[in-house]
Design brief:
The protein has 11 helices and 9 strands. The chain has helices spanning about 15-35, 60-70, 90-100, 115-120, 140-150, 170-180, 210-215, 240-245, 250-255, 275-280, 285-305; strands at about 50-55, 75-80, 105-110, 125-130, 160-165, 185-190, 205, 220, 260. Bound molecules: phosphoric acid mono(formamide)ester.
Length: about 300
């Protein structure tokens, strides 16, 4: 199989296990490319990509941009804060204006759940979801699983705990879909107020005791508390959250085995994770960022193969 089963990358829930394997195999090739002295291939010289970011981003935006440049695509960047969206233009009008400049692929981050799906039904371009509200962040989950595969040889059968604000996290949902599809065991851990009520229907177990969750797992994926998505207070204080759900070196050293530590970023050092844990040799946080470029090259390349000029 050398083609994705989907026309867009809107969420992990639309992918098959074979799609994920194809994305990883293609990323293996691109990872080798980006470690060469000349880190660029001419594959997408005939492709134009628009990066539309209606919400803040550091890693995802830079990573997509770099991936596109490494593939030799032409790119245009759009940031909502500096655009005519502020003057009342609709999403479809904004995107259609951009597409009239002959754009083939749109990478979009948007605060609304389903924005990517909506766009894919109304415009004639490949859509890649770079995060839609509290819903999905598919390339983050792909790079997370790819980093586990790189570190532990496989994702299948591994025990992964996702810790923190599960309720507001698109990273958590996409990771759950991706990990379950590949045969990992998944638990979530956090304050009960930040665990969605029906999470068990996704085949995930809930563990509210952090020490027990860490003793069980091979990999801990630590999430940030997303204060910007909270309209009410979900726990009494940040200090109490850190005491109950923060990962520190003492806690890690008390475990019988050395677990892998992951974090999608941005990190709130000293809140969900201490600096010595974030920078420890068992942390693969910067490997995740490095792998993000190869994964995004892979996704863009595979979708671009479906475009007929
Ligand atoms: N992990 C992630 O999505 O980071 P950014 O918000 O900086 O893109």
């Amino acid at each position: 199989m050398s083609q994705l089963s989907v026309q867009h990358l809107l969420g992990i829930k639309y992918l098959t296990k074979n799609d994920i394997e194809l994305i990883f195999q293609t990323a293996d090739h691109f990872k080798e490319v980006i470690n060469r002295p000349i880190k660029k291939v001419p594959s997408l010289r005939d492709i134009t990509i628009a990066n539309l970011f209606f919400e803040n981003s550091t890693r995802t935006k830079l990573s997509f941009e770099l991936a596109e440049k490494r593939l030799s695509a032409d790119i245009i960047n759009f940031s909502a804060s500096q655009s005519s969206v502020k003057k009342g233009e609709t999403l479809i009008d904004t995107v259609n204006n951009i597409l009239s400049m002959k754009v083939d692929i749109v990478v979009m981050r948007h605060p609304s759940v389903g924005a990517g799906v909506f766009l894919s039904q109304h415009v004639d371009a490949k859509i890649i979801n770079a995060g839609d509200g509290t819903h999905e962040h598919p390339t983050q989950a792909l790079l997370d699983s790819y980093s586990i595969r790189e570190k532990l040889g496989t994702v299948k059968g591994k025990k992964v705990v996702i810790i923190g604000d599960i309720l507001h996290s698109r990273v958590a949902l996409s990771n759950i879909f991706a990990l379950k599809l590949q045969g990992a065991e998944v638990k979530v851990c956090g304050p009960t107020t930040l665990i969605p009520k029906h999470i068990k229907s996704l085949g995930v177990e809930v563990e509210t005791n952090l020490k027990k969750a860490l003793e069980w797992c091979d990999v801990a994926n630590v999430l940030r508390v997303q204060h910007e998505r909270m309209d009410v207070s979900y726990f009494p204080s940040t200090r109490e959250y850190t005491q109950l759900f923060g990962i520190n070196k003492e806690l890690l050293d008390s475990l019988e085995k050395k677990i892998v530590i992951m974090h999608p970023g941005p990190i709130n050092r000293g809140v969900e994770i201490t600096s010595d844990v974030a920078d420890a040799d068992q942390s693969i946080i910067l490997n995740q960022v490095e792998n993000g470029v190869a994964i995004r090259m892979s996704v863009i390349y595979l979708l671009a193969q479906q475009i007929k000029h």
